[in-house]
Amino acid sequence: MLAIKKARKFIQANPTDPAARIISALVLALESEGQISVAQLYELSNDKFELVLEILSEWRLDRHYASKLRLLDLSSQVHGLSTATATPSVA
């Protein structure tokens, strides 16, 4: 989460900076599964471009964790249903 935190701090400190706007657009595109022009990313300085690559890496990793949590939640629900139907009710 270091890159995402660095990006947040950079954007907060420099909201009118063109690089902050490009990074913000990237974050919005990632969240909404939208699009951003690669040409915009190439406009960034080397250090901001590296930050973008780090954001992409962290975002991808986070997405896998979110998928894992949804799978775990669903598995837990299914297991609960299986346990409830396997246990005979007492009358």
Q: What does this 3D model show about the protein?
A:
The chain is an all-alpha fold and 91 residues long. The protein has one domain (2-86). Helices cover 80% and strands 0% of the residues. It is built from 4 helices and no strands. The mean pLDDT is 87.
Secondary-structure map:
Layout: H1 2-13, H2 18-32, H3 38-42, H4 46-86
Helix pairs in contact: 1-4, 2-4
Number of helices: 4
How far apart the termini lie comes to: 53 Å
Assembly classification: single chain
Shape: elongated
* Class based on secondary structure composition and strand pairing: mainly alpha
H and E order = HHHH
Q: Could you give the count of β-strands?
A: 0
Please indicate the percent range of residues in DSSP E strands (runs of 2 or more): under 5%
Mean pLDDT: 87
Low-pLDDT runs of 5+ residues are none
Number of domains: 1
Helix content: over 70%
> What is the radius of gyration?
21 Å
Largest sheet: none
